[in-house]
User: Fold these one by one.
Assistant:
Number 1:
Amino acid sequence: MKYIISFALLLSSFCATAAPSEVLRCLGAEEQRLHKAKSQGPEFQLNQQLISELIQVESIDLSPTYLSLVCNYKENYPSKKLLYLLLDKGNKIFEFKHGLSASDISVGESMLEDFMKDTQGIVMSYIASIQQEAPTADCLKKNIPEMELFYIDMKYLEEEIETKYLFKDKGLAEKILNKLSNYPKLFKKCMPQPEIKKTDKSGSTPNRKKS
């Protein structure tokens, strides 16, 4: 499923309905920054996925406390912080906008439930996108033991098994994401190490024998 959708285009869909939520404005600002930096990596892909999903649930926004945590995230990646909060707190981080009718709230609750189900797929997609950036195929597996269980869940997802059976232990995803918080540093462990030339007892490198 393609998630690369411009926030500017999505924003236009609100012209005839409602104003975009504050969290969407925050993610939109992140998208513009990543686009300006010509970044197409895991963070950009995560940003696009979350925007694509949240644009459909226009009746909700983050509560002020969580909005501040997301938009003022020290790593400057609001999408990552939002993903962590979704795993840790679930739908408790959201609140419905003021002035909605009972019917609007009922529809919003249903759409929010669908979004929370899709969160598992977003988590797995984000981790998979980091895997694609790794210098070796087994880099993450070697440095993060929990990845073995993640790959099993990925297999189930590819076989279209009900997502409710995935990530029964949400701590698994949290552990993996925490260890991937600085994945460029982790990647360095998997880079080929330069060969160390052998030296003789005097400390000099022995000459090769001439043929």
Note: Residues 1-17, 161-166 have pLDDT under 50 and may be disordered.
Number 2:
Amino acid sequence: MFTFSDAVLLVRKIAVGVLLTLVPFALIAGGIWLALQLFH
């Protein structure tokens, strides 16, 4: 049986997975952008 609480848990797991994937990319991209801004 697939209940609403199961759906909420699934959505939370997906959201956490997406955040853990995107945050490092955002930090790397932000670091590269800052470095380029400073060197110009």
Note: Residues 13 and 23 are 15 Å apart (CA to CA).
Number 3:
Amino acid sequence: MKKLLLIVVIVSVVALTLGNLSQNKFSLGKTAFAEQIEKANQLCPIDLPYGVGAVTSITIENGFVMYNICYNREFCNIMQLLDKEKQKEVFLMACLINNAQGKNNGDQFINMLIEEGCGLKYVINDSLFGPFECSISVDEIISMRQRYILNPHEALQNVLQLTLEAEKTALPLIIEDGMVITDCLLEDNNIVFIVSCDEELYSMDSLNFYKSDLKSFMLENAKSDAQSHMFLGLCKMSHTGLVWRYVGMQSQEKCDIVLSSYEINQEIQTPPNLNIH
């Protein structure tokens, strides 16, 4: 699950900076766009949720609003696993998702970029997979906006699909001796991880018998890990449940450990800057 987190952080980055900009530009409209970017930059470094890193600067350079982001070294940047066009799509989805904050901040930010003729650039200076950069020109922003007429919930579902697509590039993934994640998919509004189990090492009967204890352990473990906690926050925002489906290699018997959307909603607090319903 730790490999599924960068996209929700991008949503966080957009939410944080849109919130700062909205206090002046969106509400008052009295100062220039560049001045608002400068004011947002003065608030940096802006800590990201769960302590995974910070936005270190927000500037306008060579016709782009540029976000410099520094993640903790162990943080997984799965954006690099998507092709360039889908990387750009993620940032548009993040703006559309932030319309759910109640002021259509995402649309207004896109309008500001178009009016000022500015593109958008994200520069990640460090993460587990190394440096990363993604640029979207103003013409690409206009084109993508015309193609994607989505409400925040639809944009979140698109983000989930992109997230799982990136995750699949790292599969199969050995998580324990005799346990391998072979697939991940959306099924009946749940994110499902398929885990193949060697039944010479793991009894399917035991997994089924102790599934309640296993669920409690997994939930507490996820809540104590920043990246996993953030992923559960994405599940909460998208009203999506989580299923670990263990499948015996020999018998093909299954054991589903289910964390429902309701349970996630009860257990996980969404950071204030992601006040998305």
Note: The radius of gyration is 20 Å.
